[in-house]
Amino acid sequence: MDILIKNATIITCNAQNEVLKGDILIKSGKIARIAENIELSIYEQACVKVIEGKDLIAMPGLINAHTHCGQTVLRSFADDLPLYEWLFEKIFPAEEKLTKEMIYFSSLLGIAEMLKSGTTMFFDMYFHEDMTAKAVQQTGIKAVLSRGLQTDEKEDLRLDETKELIYNYSSDKIKVFFGPHSVYTCSYELLEKVAQLAQEFKTGVMIHLSESENEVNGCYEKYDMSPVKLCNQAGLFDTICIAAHCVYVDDEDIEIMAEKNVSCVYNPTSNLKLGNGFAPVQNMIKSGVNVAIGTDSAASNNNLNMLEEMHIASLLEKGMYRLSDILNAQQILKMATVNAAIAAGINKTGVLQEGFCADIVLLKANDFNMLPCYNPISNVVYSSNPSNVYATIVDGQILYMNGKLFTLDEEVLVKEVKSIEKFLRESV
After folding, report:
1. What's the order of all strands across the beta sheet hosting 241-245?
2. What is the pLDDT of residues 214-238, one digit of tens each?
3. Is the pTM here over 0.85, yes or no?
4. Sequence ranges of the binding site for Zn(2+)
């Protein structure tokens, strides 16, 4: 059914940064019209769902540009540890116990959380990624998926799994990228192979890059260059490349990223929680690097709440540089919407504009924490939380509204997740 949102405050995120008051008509999954007062014909009145938006803010759906949905069942499993200990001594051993079915329900759990907090698309890297793809198909959210790659005896099998993902799941809602985990888990030869395959399959690459001092120091010891320079030399930057974290990048690294159109995904909460430091986001933006925002996984964040991530992202940069006017609310919101779409080479989303996909979030503007509302964008970035999300719409389909998810059974999901929790408690 088509949708008409009436009398809403519309944050467009367009090039002019317009905030409008008016209606949004959605037809066949696209934004057909944005205007002050859209009148429906008698015929249309019978087949269009009208949402009264007088007390609602309509904005582009949030895009979580880096996470690992299969890790959602590891929320609070291994907290307050440095990255390498967290990853190699806790997370990797626990992951060995996860079955395909567990990752399916873990992905559903992550998607449910994201839909309830206004996310309409996410970028993901994990194993058994076909299970995450099935969860995406079931729920109606959008995703860019990658099978995590690393160098060991199963390297070729993992590459084959990526190709199968491309063949079996590529669609209007799912894009598949190659996903080399990092320079410290992938050989140089694998990085080169991934670069060649990404070009052959006309797709992109996502990678964890310069996340920690250990990673950078190890790369210099082994290759006598930074992770950014190594990836560039291997050819990873000759296709679409999404680099998560980029905490320890110097001016030369940033210059390379800007020149090669590499997008950075800023993950402030995960970086803070794992004690990895602060990405030089302001320097990257000044140099022309496209920057998006991601939560990372619930195992390291510990949530997938992009509304919170925007808030932290802005405050962290302001505090680090001691400048209150950098990374303003408008910039942050664009990083969480249109910049993420640009990062993945995805057109027609991230902006509320006629002809674009109807990927829309509606926020309750009259909740106490959203009042008064002198500046709707500021309220979204600095004041909102998931309780303010009234509806999440993807391609014109209402996936969540007024407390209810429409494409999954919440009771069954809770039961399955608790069963997985019991198993991991007893077996790890």
Report:
1. 62-67, 119-126, 142-149, 174-180, 205-209, 241-245, 263-266, 291-293
2. 999 999 999 999 999 999 999 999 9
3. yes
4. 66, 68, 208, 296
